[in-house]
Amino acid sequence: MSHTEVRTEPWRGTAATVGWILLVTAAYYTGGRIGLTQRIVVDGAHVTPLWPPTGIALAALLRLGPRIWPAIVLGTYLVITSISPFDWTAVGILVGNTAAPLCAYALLRRARFRTELDRLHDGLALVFLGGLLPMLISATAGTGVLVAAGSLPTAGVWGVWSAWWAGDTMGVLVLTPVLLCVRRPELPIEPLRAVEATVLLLAAWLTASVVAHTEMSLLFLVFPLIIWAAVRFQLPGAAPCVLIVSVVAITAAIARDGPFAGHTLFELMVNLQAFNGAAALTGLLLSALVTEQNNIRIKVEEACEELEEVITQLRSGRPR
């Protein structure tokens, strides 16, 4: 290897890192702008039932490592400045939004999380260590600085905090699995399975669109489709299915349509997040469990084949 090649390798690595940081920043900002289209006002604070940037940030950290943390900072800064001036309260929100996914990444690494999500252990880790627990940081930091600045009355702290925490958590549970399975080879490529997957996603969208805009409480009808997706296609099928039904439900809830009509804001948020959480948990945990059982079956079959080969060789009198 020449001296020129030795000197250029670090630059190539740096250029690749900068490129990934810019790409993740753009994705974070785009996700934030999309999330803000569904924002609601709780005691003067803007919160979203599903905050995509948290899912984008955690997926990027799991795929690329902690080196892309500046992308989270830049993305958060761009989202904040797109809706309000950047002041000291925005600094607190920026710190919280950056620390939460970094904490989630650290906890998942410590739990030996695998991005394939092929074990029940991984599904549970993503739910609790990737979503529920670390997103307490961003919700607490965000509401804390708003209260300190006088922008949020003390009486409204619980409502804003719970909505903030739920939105950030749902971003992880709904969007991170989709991004983690984008490059998985298990995506259906056989013609019949591709048709089945397409029909499944269309059925999920149509069913969710109908039940989310009717006054009857029929949201539970989407769960057989999520189960079908998890059993037949595991994460690559269940994750997009959950994303579709969650987005449709959020749209109906923001419009106060269907089963979400006639409720107070608190009741609306509880119903919406309970539905989204149940859908995400069903798809994520069931797909992880099915994948784990399939892997166990494959290992047992391989062990049986090896044992059969040994027995055949022993019967023929030939050493292995």
Main sheet overview: 2 strands, antiparallel
Output the structural class. mainly alpha
Percent helix among the residues? over 70%
In DSSP terms, counting alpha (H) and pi (I) runs of 4 or more, how many helices? 11
Rounded to the nearest angstrom, the distance between the terminal CA atoms is: 44 Å
Quick gist of this model?
The protein is mostly helical.
What does this protein look like?
The chain has 320 residues and is mainly α. It is 74% helix and 2% strand. The protein has helices at 3-36, 52-64, 69-81, 88-110, 120-132, 135-148, 157-180, 191-211, 223-233, 235-254, 265-316, and strands at 40-42, 45-47. Mean pLDDT is 84; it is low at 1-9.
Topology readout:
Layout: H1 3-36, E1 40-42, E2 45-47, H2 52-64, H3 69-81, H4 88-110, H5 120-132, H6 135-148, H7 157-180, H8 191-211, H9 223-233, H10 235-254, H11 265-316
Antiparallel strand pairs: 1-2
Helix pairs in contact: 1-2, 1-3, 2-4, 2-7, 3-4, 4-5, 4-6, 5-7, 5-11, 6-7, 7-10, 7-11, 8-9, 8-10, 9-10, 9-11, 10-11
Q: Keyphrases for this structure?
A:
320 residues; mainly alpha; two-stranded antiparallel ribbon; 2 strands; globular; disordered N terminus
